[in-house]
Every structure is written in structure tokens, then in C-alpha cells.
Design goal:
Low-confidence stretches: 1-36
Order of helices and strands: HHEHEHEHHEEEHEHEHHEEHHEHH
Structural class: alpha/beta
Number of helices: 14
Number of strands: 11
Mean pLDDT: 88
Radius of gyration: 20 Å
Distance between the termini: 29 Å
Length: 364
């Protein structure tokens, strides 16, 4: 069974349970109806629990800042999706149905059912944040239009996690040494690149990553530089390969019916302040990419993580050339196969036309 088929099988299997669970919580997730004297309180589903994006940015914004910014007129409660019984693969569908009126959806998870949403963060496409920003900017108008018109979701922000790099239990000096190693992945695109390297991709959720490495089911894992430190990968792995495979994009959006039902002053406030929150998250992700590397190495410059003793392996010119070739010959063609002719045309008119440090092919 291919990884894509497995992702689809999982998504189909969990949908029934997710809907039953979330329908039971629907009243708790919907905006509260209020009398004029009672502040309006929103129910928000946020991103991954425990990582800095949620702890330092999403949670404080909704639980504290919204009330302050609105002078107490509006407030919110937030819970991370992975501690709310909601599968990442189903977030967009449940938002579209209105079961989750306001939520944060990981685009890598959504791309299993909707491949076009993985376009901005294909594995190997963005070796640095400058490339990521260019590709997101080129694709964002189409992303917003598609989610609004086909899924009934208003995109209010696009977030990024820190760079997703490779953590390994055994030494490596180059990517060619990864052949036949079992590597944790979180998306079809990551699996494509790993297979192109001759390795074995293993689909594992963020919360189960540490256990799989400890048990020996996987030998390496792709995850964020700082999130890996947060869950303790620096204590059970010895080497990290410093090249972003992906970054980890997410959208914060609202079901259109729920969004249209909000007071106009609240909608204006959210558009303004979520733009600020998005900027803060992107800036923090860039800082945390470097800080995560420093902490995993045990450098004195480590600020927010726990010091480790890992060996940092920087990519050689040969490795960079290899990744660029795999993007052209494996990652992009396989993504296009999962997608359709419209996606090929979309690629050529958006990301494929953007000047890049990594020359990108068109679909012709």
C-alpha cells in the first residue's frame, strides 16, 4: 500500500469517529449566543499542543489579548486540535461543515486529501525562509480563493513552524548514507523525497514520534529544530542534518457562515490583529530554527531550549545538488500525479513562475 493510499484509508476510517466526537462538542465550539450585556466569547481550535507556536502565540492571543484589545467586549477560549480528539487530516473538512467554526489546519495533513494545498511546502522546495516567503506569497491568493469558494472557509492567517530537519540516532555525513533507513515523515511530499533517497518513509504523528524512535521502529525523524528539542529528540538522537526538508505551514480560518455571523467590528479587529499574529509567528519561527539548532548542539547561545550534545551536519554541494534534482525528478512529478491538470496549470502560473534560488520546472 502506498503512503498516499494509507493516508486516505486513515482519513476515511477516522471521519466517522471524528464527526461523532466533534458533533458532540459542536455547541462548545460554536460562538456563544449572547445578550447585549454579555461579552461574545468564541471557541477556537488551535495548532499542535506543547510547541512554541501554540504556547507563546496562539494561546495568549485568544485567551488574553483579544479581550484586552476589544476592551472586554470580546473574548475566546482555545484548545489545541491534537488534545481535542480531532484528527489533523479532518480539520479542513470539519471546518467546512461548520462543526469547527474557527480552527488551525496543518496543510501537510490536508494535502493527503487535497494535494494542491501541499504546493507551497513541497519537500526540498524551500531551503530557506526567503524561498518559503516567495512561494507562499505567489500561491496565497489562489489558496484563499479555493478555500472560500470550494470549502466555505475564510483564510485569516497563514502560519509556519520552524524548519523541519532530520534527526538521526546513528551518524551520517551525507544524504546518501540514509539509504534503507526508516525515517519518520508527516506528509506524502516528505515521503516522496525520502523514497528518492532510497530510504523507507514511516508515517508517524507528532505525538508518537518519540516512542517510535525509542522502540526502534524508526531510525530518524523529520521535525522542527525546536519542536524536536521540546519533546526530547536531542536526548535520543545523535546527529541532525541542517537542511530544511519542509517547514510546516498551517492556516487559521473560519467557516464562512460563522465568520459572516460575527459583528463587523470584531471581524475588522480580527483581520488586523491576526495579520500581526501571523507576522509574529513567522519571525519567531525563523529565530527558533536557529535557536533549536544551537540548543541541540549545546551552544551557549541557546536561549529557549534544553542543551544537548548533538552533531550538526551541514549539507555539502553534492547533497544540495541531489535535493534539487529530486525535487525536479521525483517530488514535483509525484505531487502532480496526485493532483490533476488544474494543479499543473496552477503551478506554472504561481510557484513555477517565481524566481528562486532553486530553479523550478514547469509542468510542460
Amino acid at each position: 500500500m502506498t503512503l498516499h493510499a494509507e493516508l486516505c484509508r486513515r482519513a476515511t476510517w477516522v471521519l466517522g469517529q471524528a464527526v461523532l466526537t466533534c458533533l458532540g462538542l459542536a455547541l462548545a465550539l460554536l460562538p456563544l449566543t449572547t445578550q447585549a450585556s454579555t461579552p461574545l466569547k468564541l471557541r477556537i481550535v488551535g495548532g499542535l499542543a506543547g510547541v512554541n507556536q501554540y504556547v507563546q502565540h496562539e494561546e495568549p492571543f485568544w485567551s488574553q489579548e483579544l479581550a484586552r484589545l476589544s476592551g472586554g467586549k470580546y473574548s475566546a477560549e482555545i484548545a489545541p486540535f491534537d488534545r481535542s480528539g480531532i484528527p489533523a487530516e479532518e480539520m479542513l473538512r470539519l471546518m467546512s461543515l461548520g462543526v469547527i467554526p474557527f480552527g488551525t489546519a496543518l496543510l501537510s495533513a490536508a494535502s493527503a486529501q487535497h494535494p494542491m494545498f501541499g504546493a507551497m511546502d513541497l519537500s526540498g522546495l524551500n531551503p530557506d525562509m526567503a524561498n518559503l516567503k516567495r512561494h507562499v506569497a505567489s500561491f496565497r491568493p489562489l489558496l484563499q480563493k479555493t478555500l472560500r469558494e470550494k470549502h466555505g472557509i475564510e483564510v485569516l492567517a497563514v502560519y509556519t513552524y520552524p524548519a523541519q530537519i532530520l534527526f538521526c540516532k546513528k551518524p551520517l555525513a551525507s544524504l546518501r548514507e540514509l539509504e534503507k533507513r526508516r525515517i519518520r515523515v508527516s506528509s506524502p511530499s516528505q515521503a516522496d523525497l525520502i523514497q528518492g533517497l532510497g530510504s523507507v518513509p514511516v508515517l508517524v504523528g507528532f505525538g508518537q514520534m518519540l516512542a517510535h524512535l525509542q522502540s526502534g521502529n524508526t531510525e530518524c525523524a523529520i521535525t522542527g529544530t525546536m519542536s524536536g528539542n521540546t519533546i526530547g529528540l536531542h536526548e535520543i538522537t545523535s546527529h541532525m542534518y541542517n537542511l530544511p526538508f519542509t517547514w510546516g505551514l498551517a492556516i487559521f480560518g473560519a467557516n464562512m457562515t460563522a465568520w459572516n455571523a460575527l459583528p463587523s467590528d470584531l471581524k475588522a479587529l480580527l483581520r488586523k490583529e491576526l495579520t500581526r499574529l501571523e507576522t509574529n509567528i513567522w519571525n519567531a519561527s525563523e529565530r527558533e530554527t536557529a535557536d533549536g539548532l544551537a540548543c541541540n548542539r549545546g551552544d551557549p547561545s541557546c536561549e529557549h531550549g534544553r542543551p544537548g550534545k548533538m552533531t550538526q551536519v551541514n549539507p555539502s554541494p553534492d547533497d544540495i545538488k541531489l535535493v534539487r534534482e529530486l525535487v525536479k525528478t521525483t517530488v514535483l512529478p509525484r505531487w502532480q500525479q496526485r493532483c490533476n491538470q488544474h494543479c499543473r496549470e496552477m503551478w506554472d502560473s504561481t510557484i513555477g513562475s517565481v524566481p528562486s534560488d532553486m530553479p523550478l520546472p514547469n509542468s510542460r
